[in-house]
Amino acid sequence: MAGKRIVSIGECMIEMSGGEDRTYRLGYAGDTLNTAWYLRALLGKGWDVDYVTALGKDRYSDDIRGFLKDNHIGTDHIGTIPERRPGLYMIHQDKGDRHFTYWRDQSAAKLLADDKSALQKAVEGASLVYFSGITLAILAPKARGRLLEAIVKARDNGAKIAFDTNLRPALWSSPRVMASVLTAAASLCDIVLPTHTDEAPLFGDKSVDDTADRYLELGVEEVVVKDGAKEALIATASERVRISPKPAEKVVDATGAGDSFNGGYLSARLNGKSIREAAEEAHRVAGVVIGHKGALVEPKFLK
Ligand SMILES: O=C(O)C(=O)C[C@H](O)[C@H](O)CO
């Protein structure tokens, strides 16, 4: 593995959470940023965590840059698209689950992979590159190709590649395109972190083992199958470990549960923990996050 540097790639949006009495809290979030945030909070000082995206020149783009810097997340490889702004999403709770409404069709982040050399530079020297199905969903087909090319290059240079398929049907032109792009991307990765309940209807998986097998057959080394409040399955070619979460004290907002699970899991693995220990840490972190509104929970609550 190269140095102690993590690069997470994707879209950070303006997040409106809460909404009771039509009162919202403004935050900044997006699946890959959320995982970067938890990696930053959980890894020691010896690690650099960089976020790669594109923002505009408006006050919210500037505020996002400041917010990331204040929280020790690197911004040096964030591109600037002057005529674009960040996307926005609102969270609402319904029937015990969180739902998102997006305003992101024209966001700056959709152009994050337009500059091929900047992208390749951004992942240089990374020990871990992290991206998601949402990162791919927001890009035009050619830009997806550029992103995957940069990722393959980073892998050839010693980076581990971690990928959460993070299905968001609303962001894709069709379920068929979503399934084929996600499968192709997963085949380039070392660690894949899917969510069984999201994947089952698309791929016909009957169990978490089916979900794991599908990715192992593609050549993925470590598959981390999340299944909400049920046990997670961590599968490699030689081992299968099932870990249940502790019952949640309170569920306020499940936004970011999977992303924080990934942050907990990957930080533990990067610190040399076993897959079992990593899954326990992942459940612990996600258990804290669902007790708070919005995707990002202050590091002090994670101790
Ligand atoms: O849905 C998205 O695109 C987001 O990134 C919003 C949320 O922060 C994320 O989905 C939570 O997992």
TrEMBL record:
Pfam families: PfkB. InterPro entries: PfkB_Carbo_kinase, PfkB_dom, Ribokinase-like. Residues 5-295 form the Carbohydrate kinase PfkB domain. The keyword Hydrolase does not apply. Coiled coil: none annotated. GO terms for molecular function: 2-dehydro-3-deoxygluconokinase activity. GO terms for biological process: D-galacturonate catabolic process; D-glucuronate catabolic process; DNA damage response. The keyword Kinase applies. Keywords: Kinase, Transferase. GO terms for cellular component: cytosol. It comes from the Bacteria. Belongs to the carbohydrate kinase PfkB family. This is 2-dehydro-3-deoxygluconokinase.
